[in-house]
Amino acid sequence: MSHKAMKPEDDIASQISKIDAKIRKCTLCRLHENRTNAVPGTGKTIDLDLMIVGEGPGRNEDAAGKPFVGAGGRVLDSMLREAGLERSEVYITNIVKCRPPENRKPLDDETEICTSHYLENQIELLKPKLICTLGATALKYFTDETNMAKNHGRLLKSKNGLVIFSTYHPAAVFRSNSLRQVLQEDIKKIPSVLKELTENSKQKLLP
Ligand code: SF4
Does the residue 156 lie in any domain? Predict the structure, then answer.
């Protein structure tokens, strides 16, 4: 019986599915104890330009097993669309894949265990041109920066050389209407940032 050779893109999709399956069964940190569903990530896996990384699943995401499906997700979708991007064109995931109790911030050990087992592998496989971080937890994980006001809407280099575009978490718009505008303006910059990254070497663009 002959087998067709596996195309590289099928291989990436199948490896991402294997990571998803491991995440759904994972018990490596305490966050598995209260989850309904782990939330591995969703989106495009071939020729990926943009990966979006938030903090962790909330109540709706925990119930659905999918990232950004609640009110914050609807804000994100509409802002992406306004910028000419569809969710199907990006890959969306979080720093931790299980919901922290009462939506608290992930603790350092939870972040370390989860990212070293899963997010790092997702990035390695998907090789996004640009990673957009949503909120302070994701910004800090990639860059050690903690000042959102100073670092939103600009390109940064991660600790291991990835290109990061930082903005606020969509949930922030429910606390402050002025942040809604800031977030929208930031997200609108992404297509031109991607175009520049395609046309120029990243060294030219990074600070
Ligand atoms: S948060 Fe990450 S490391 Fe912790 S149990 Fe969930 S998948 Fe595993």
Answer: yes
Does 26 fall in a domain? no
Residue 23 alpha carbon, nearest atom of ligand 1: 7
On the question of pLDDT at 202 being above 80, the answer is no
Distance from the alpha carbon of residue 167 to the mean position of ligand 1, in angstroms: 24
CATH of the domain at 50: 3.40.470.10
Q: Inform me whether the pLDDT recorded for 9 exceeds 90.
A: no
The residue to mutate among 62, 114, 115, 118, having the most atoms of ligand 1 within 8 angstroms of its beta carbon, is 114
Number of structural domains found in the chain: 1
Query: What's residue 1's pLDDT?
Result: 42
103-116 core/surface letters (b: 16 or more CB in 10 A; e: else): eebbeeebbebbbe
Nearest CA to ligand 1 atom 3: 114
**pTM for the whole structure:** 0.94
The range of the structural domain enclosing residue 49 comes to 40-55+76-92+111-199
Task: Quote the ligand 1 centre to 142 CA distance (angstroms).
Answer: 18
Q: Which of 39, 42, 80, 76 minimizes the C-alpha distance to 60?
A: 39
Q: How high is the pLDDT of residue 6?
A: 66
Atom of ligand 1 nearest to the CA of 27: 5
Which segments within 48-162 are labelled E, that is strand?
Answer: 50-54, 91-94, 130-134, 155-157
Q: Which residues have C-beta atoms less than 6 Å from ligand 1?
A: 23, 26-29, 31-32, 38, 96-98, 110, 113-114, 117
